[in-house]
Amino acid sequence: MALVTDVLEWLQALPQPALVGATGALVFAECTIGLGFIAPGEGGLLIAATTVDSVSRFIVLWAVVTVAAGIGDSIGYAIGRRFGPALRETKVVQKYGAEGWDKATDILRRRGAWAVFFARFLPVVRTLTPAAAGTSGLAYRKFLPAVVAGAACWSAMHIAIGAALGEAAKRIEGFISTGGLVLVGGLVVALLITMTIRKRRKKARAAAVTVAPGDADPELEPAG
């Protein structure tokens, strides 16, 4: 059987609670300051989304990821409120996201709660914005709706992309495994023939250059 189809079927066969729970945990970890630099939340969500083959699976995964992102961002906000601007000088932020922190604080200063919403779609900045929002003094009553709305749109978009990729992979693999395989084989043969012809022509031209006029064998030249 085809490799991609096997992997997708294996993922779909996993217990749904375990798959959804693991994805939610990755997203939660990514949204919490410090963990976002090492937890592949976005990648994990896309992989899990390839198993979505029904409306119910879509809704369950979307709801869990949205809640996990909202809780993770709220923890990041609380950390920002607790430690303030000193967070920028921590080793984690200095090593991975000092520039992202500056971008987050700049956007927050200009856009307020809207910055929290749009930051959800920006790598690195997404991880740092909640803590930066807490540090900036943005009211939680304004922060939370923006976080939930951003997380809901972000998760829906990535789940839709992952589901589409999974379906496309199956269709492409199915095409290649039937009539497409003959077409691919024909293209490979044609490519090999073309390469062989070009190689022979190149050798012939090289031989012609080597035996140029005036370089004939002296023994065959008439005596003077």
Report on the architecture of this protein.
With 224 residues, the protein is mainly alpha-helical. Helices cover 78% and strands 0% of the residues. The protein has helices at 3-13, 16-31, 41-49, 55-83, 91-111, 113-119, 125-136, 140-177, 179-210. Helix 4 packs antiparallel against helix 8 and helix 5 crosses helix 6. The longest helix has 38 residues, at 140-177. The radius of gyration is 30 Å and the shape is flat. Residues 176-181 and 216-224 have low confidence and may be disordered.
Largest sheet: none
Number of helices: 9
Into which percent range does the helicity of residues fall?
Answer: over 70%
Helix-strand topology string: HHHHHHHHH
Low-confidence residue ranges: 176-181, 216-224
Mean pLDDT: 75
